[in-house]
Batch of 2 targets.
Target 1
Amino acid sequence: MAASRKKIVVSLTVPADLRERLQNEFDLIDLPVGGNIDDVVPASDRAGIHGLLGTLRLKVDDALLARYPGVEVVSNYAVGFDNIDVDAATKRNVLVCNTPEVLDKAVADLTLGLMLCAMRDMVRGDGFVRGGKWMKGALPLSTDLAGKTLGLLGMGRIGRMVAARAKAFDMDVIYHNRKKDEAAESSGLARWVEREALFRQSDVVSVHVPLSDETTRCVGARELGWMKPSAFLVNTARGKVLDEDALVEFLRERKIAGAALDVMTVEPIGADHPLCQLDNVVLQPHVASGTVETRRAMMDLAVENLILGLRGERPRALVNA
Ligand code: DGY
C-alpha cells in the first residue's frame, strides 16, 4: 500500500509553479495570512499535520506545537524567526527554517533609501511640490551623507552590505557588535567601537540586530540621549528592538533630528499612531525585503526548506541545526 501523503498548512500566497511542487508531494491546507490555524484544521485532524509554511504573522509557540504534535518542520518565509519559539520546537524535534542571505541586498538598499529620505528630507520635498509650494517659499536645507559617520548597531550580513553601500556615499562607518568583524576591520570597511561611543559619534545610527530577549528595547531613552541632536536613527530590523515611546518623545522634542523606520513595535500601525503625527520621521510598512526578485528568492528557499525537511533531508537554511 502506498504511504499516505504528508499534510502541510500553507499560510501565504505561493506562486503557481511552487504550489504545484508542493502539491506533487503533500496535501495542502490553506490558511489566510493572519488567520487562526485552528479555524482551518479541525481538532480531529491536527495530529496529522506535518509541516507549516508561513509568514511572521504565523505565531508558533509551544501550545500550538502541542496541539499539532505531528509537525516536523516549520518553514518561515522570513529571515527573522521571532514569531517562533525555537527552544520549544527544538525540544519537540521540530525543524525551524528561515530565508537568510537572499534578502540581504534588498534590506541594505532600503536602509540606504531610508537614510537618504530622512537626511535629504525627501518626503517633505515631495509634499512641497505636490502642495504647489515650489514658488512659494523655501524648503529647509537638508543634510549631506558624505563625510558623516554611520554607526551600525549589529554587524551581520546585512550590516556589512549597508556598510559597503555607505562607503560609496563617502561615509565613515563604525559598528558595535559582540564580536569584531576582522574582515571589515582589515579591509577598512568599518571600525568596531564601544556601544556608547557608537551612539555618541554617529550622525546616523542604523539598527541591524535580530530580535531576542537580549535585544528587546535595547535602544531606549538612555541610548537616544547619547545621540547628537543633529543625528538620525534608522531601523529596518525589528520594531521591538526600540523603545518606541522614548523615540516618539525624542522626535517630538527634536532631541534628535529624525528617524526612518520600516518596522514598528506592533504592526500594522494605524494613521492615528503617534509616529504618524510627526514630520521628522519617514515610515515604511515593513517592506525592506519587498521586491519582486527578493520575495521570489525567499519563497523558493522557504518551499525548498519545507520539502527537504519533510523528506528527511537537511533543509538549506536550518535555524535549530
Ligand atoms: C524578515 O525576513 O525577517 C523580514 O523582516 C520579513 O520581510
Target 2
Amino acid sequence: TRVAILISGRGSNMVSLIEAAKAPGYPAEIVLVLSNRPDAAGLAHARSVGITAHAIDHRAFPDRATFDAALDAELRAAGVELVCLAGFMRVFSAGFVEAWAGRMINIHPSLLPLFKGTHTHAQALAAGVRLHGCTVHYVVPELDAGPIVAQAAVPVRAGDDPDSLAARVIVQEHRLYPAALALVAGGGARLQGDRVVIEDDGA
Ligand code: GRF
C-alpha cells in the first residue's frame, strides 16, 4: 500500500511510521511526506532517508478548498492509496475528506471520544481522569471523530503536568501508529459502516 504522511511540525510520529515501514513484510510503503508548513522539521528528516517530501504552504492559497485541491493533486500524482495524518494541524474541507473516505487515518493524543481538539493533556488533567492515551481513527468531516482503529492507554500520575503527561502518551503514539497502519494497510482492520472490524487470526 502506497502511503503519504501529512505533517505540520516535528514529525516524530512520521519517523515512527517510516522506521516501521522498513521492516520486511510491513504492508505499507511511505512514498510521500507533505507539510502545510515550510518550516516543519519532519520534512528534512524524510528527505534524509530518501522519501519525497515537500511543503504546500496553505498561506499561498486563497481558501481551504483550493489548498485541499492542491494536496489532492499531489497525492494522486504520487499514486497514494492511503493517507496518514501525523500532527497535521489543518482542518479539511468536507469534499477532500469525502474523496479520501476510508483511506485516511489520524492519530489523536487522547482516548477518543474524550478530549477532542487541542491541549488534550491539559483537558485530561482538568477532568481528573486516571487514564489517558491516544487513538488512531479514520478521518470523517467532524474533527477528531470517526471510526476507531486502535487505542493505547497510560496512567495519569500524581504531580503530572501537561508536559509530563504528553511525554508518557507520545511513547505510546510511536508504538500505536505503526501497529494501526499495519492493520489498515494489511487488511486486518476494515471499515464496516461507522465501525472498524478487526479481523481476528482465528485464536
Ligand atoms: C502528536 O501528539 C499527535 O498525536 C498530535 O500532534 C502531535 C504531533 O507530534 N496530533 P509529531 O509531529 O508527530 O511529533
